[in-house]
Amino acid sequence: MILEKLKELSKDTAVYGISTMVGRFLGFLLVPIYTNVFNPTQLGNFTNVYAYLAFLNVVYIYGMDAAFMKYTSIAEKEKKKTTFSTPYLFVVGSTSILSIIFYIFLIPISNGISLPLEYSNLLVYVIFILFFDTLSLIPFSSLRLERKSQKFAFIKVTNIVINLSLNIILILVYEFGIEAIFISNLVASIFSFVVLLPEIMRKLQFQIDIVVLKKMLKFGIPYLAAAFTSTIVQVIDVPIVLKLTDTATLGIYRMNYKLGIFMMLFVQMFNFAWQPFFLENAKEKKSKELFAKVFTLFLIFSAVSWAFLSLFVEDIVQIEIAGRTLLGREFLSGLSIVPIILLAYLFNGLYMNFTAGIYIEEKTKYFPLVTISGAIVNVGVNFTLIPILGIMGAAWATLASYFVMAAGLFMISQKFYKIDYEYAKILKIFLIMGITATIYYVYMDDMNIVGKIIVFAGFLFSFIVLKIVKKDELLRTVKSFGKGANKKH
Fold this sequence. Notes:
The chain has about 500 residues and is mostly helical. The chain is built from 20 helices and two strands. Helix 1 runs parallel beside helix 8 and helix 3 packs across helix 7.
């Protein structure tokens, strides 16, 4: 019975994971369009608005989607309409009020976020995007509770496809300005809401249970602080870069930042397999030894990915397709931040590795402490280094925050679930990466493609010379990890 439930969980996780990966990759395909059509200043304003949109998404829902899942999952069948309707109607009301307030103070808000007056109309789109996205969150959570993962994934992926298609049509065919990005997002958001309407009406009763509402607010509002802190780690660099530099610099910074998606996708794909794997193998006699091997294996693969992308990213983004490059020429000056952003996501992957001990020993209460530490470091390093190093300082702040989070979770995890990692190999890997990074930054202006190939070959050869990689050990670990993940499917 338990095994069957775990298999179901793994199947759903795979569907959600694939839809997330596809969605993020399709979204990344817009980078070549944006950077070849719009200038850095235009994209700086777009980035600025979307950073605040991320914060407002958290504020608008204030943890009520999590509260809904908590209380609906334990509610009796006859009470499930109440546990859906109560938070949903309350969120409809609060979202409407917040949107009206937002519209009334549109110009002061525009000035407050340093948005030029000619772009203030974009905030009208933001209001409607927030409105429809927020009203879709609880219905999406309901689909997850009912294990309608395929419908969930279909709506999410279709939303991205509509967004991508409209961007291409409005920007390349009808030559709309930056407004096209917001129109496309709004239409996609309305689509999701409309498709979810039958689900909403099927579960909705026009009555709010005050007792249930109080419980949900008490449970959900603390999530606001945690989600807000997590968002700070991800996008706080945007308003700080804008404050300390200018809009064009912000545009260059964030478009190059997006090139880190390749490492981010690798980390997320690993995490989807990692969670069911460590939960299944936690009670095995040699589980800690296995987890240590997996950590080394993950670090090897991610280090190789980091080296390849860092060395060849400049050549990759300048490949021409239909007369357009992956990254517009006006944005190439920011490529030096890419290795640092890639490394930041690598440390995010190490953070994911360390979650095993926290989950196994049920010490999840420490997650907020680690996230808050990362947010504080992010803000502090941004304000310290951007005036000195420009966008490189912002990149270092991102790396510093993820490093602190990984290190913090490592110390906490080791306290409750000690794993003897292969520290000698780990140290050698980081030593090789450090040497490669030094070569890259010292000689990047003079290094041609042949030189890069030689450096990358030396990087790979070092793993064999220093005995980091042993063929039999590598194959055994891959086989073991694959077997554990496949059991779930």
